[in-house]
Amino acid sequence: MVHCSYVWFRKYGNFIDNLRLFTKGGSGGMGYPRLGGEGGKGGDVWVVAHNRMTLKQLKDKYPQKRFVAGEGANSRVNALKGSKGKDCEIPVPVGISVTDENGKIIGELNKEKDRILVAEGGLGGKLLTNFLPLKGQKRVIRLDLKLIADVGLVGFPNAGKSSLLSQVSHAKPAIADYAFTTLKPQLGKIMYDDFKQISVADLPGLIEGAHMNKGMGHKFLKHIERTKQLLFVVDISGFQLSSQTQYRTAFETIILLTKELELYKEELQTKPALLAVNKMDLPGAQDKYHVLMNQLQNPKDFLHLFEKNMIPERTMEFQHIIPISAITGEGIDELKNYIRKSLDEHANQEDDAYHKKQLLNLQISSTISYSEPPPKNY
């Protein structure tokens, strides 16, 4: 089997989240004019999802610049119909979005063995083509990895997301005490007593202006698209990126995070969301928590404190708000339970919607079949 490979990639540390590939379908085989024989079709190029694959492995394993699928066999006297050329398969991780050079989406690979045709082989020579074969399709494609996790952690740097991930799951993220702690996505799994597992992705801390591509934030906002629900993590004491930037309270942090998501893609605000208010072990945290709850219950009363361009079109509605301390473990069990409850509720709603759609389709098909006139007996 022929394999295609990359010509360009971008990476953060050791983590690669996209590759650009040159692909070309195989040329068709020659026809046989005297006997009307048809040449074989050229092989196709497919992108195929594999669970244990990464883009880094793809880059390391196939460092060639250009690959094409096999050519179709020529028509000949003892085989008038030429055989098809060998297909070329590109093994990629699950959770890949495939686009062409113009950014148009070709397709997505969301589960093991999903496959997308990216470059078609040329037709073999036949009467219609004057028995001359056609060339295969050439295409430069881009593979974008968007993490697939049940829950995506959303927060500014130092909100305690990495500490929280290590508390709730078996992940062991590197935790540092500076503004850009997480430079690549960390994945963890919450394990429950009945063996249920829920995957959690800690995405690098956003900063104000991330939608404009400042800092690492924007590069990873796309990963949030592929999580089922969001878990906002905010520091009860607020946040200040550096001595040069403005201090933000916990409420302001939530509003600004909401605005960043909205500016990147409005649909992100329609995802189910929970809020974990972290660092409740700090002095004065309880008083600040009461103030925050009042602000969240009546957000419109406080939006006048913001510059107009910082106010989101709609404020985030949290299904549950849980005070926690990732350091002491306070509230962690409640948070795990709420995460599961929220995901279960969301799954039930999706099931209900699916069943209603199926029922409607059945009703439509039965109406059509009953309205058709009975067949005539001749």
Walk me through the structure.
The chain has 378 residues and is α/β, with parallel strands linked by helices. It has 6 helices and 15 strands. The strands form 3 sheets. Strands 1, 2, 4, 6, 7 and 9 form a 6-stranded mixed sheet that branches. A 6-stranded mixed sheet has the order 11-12-10-13-14-15, sandwiched between helices. The chain has a 3-stranded mixed sheet with strand order 5-3-8, with no helix packed on it. A hairpin with a 4-residue loop joins strand 6 (96-100) and strand 7. The longest helix has 40 residues, at 332-371. It is elongated. Mean pLDDT is 80; it is low at 1-13, 173-182, 213-217 and 369-373.
Number of helical runs?
Answer: 6
Distance linking N and C termini: 56 Å
What structural class do you assign from the helix and strand content? alpha/beta
Number of strands: 15
Low-confidence parts, pLDDT < 50 over ≥5 residues?
1-13, 173-182, 213-217, 369-373
In short:
The protein is α/β, with parallel strands linked by helices and 378 residues long.
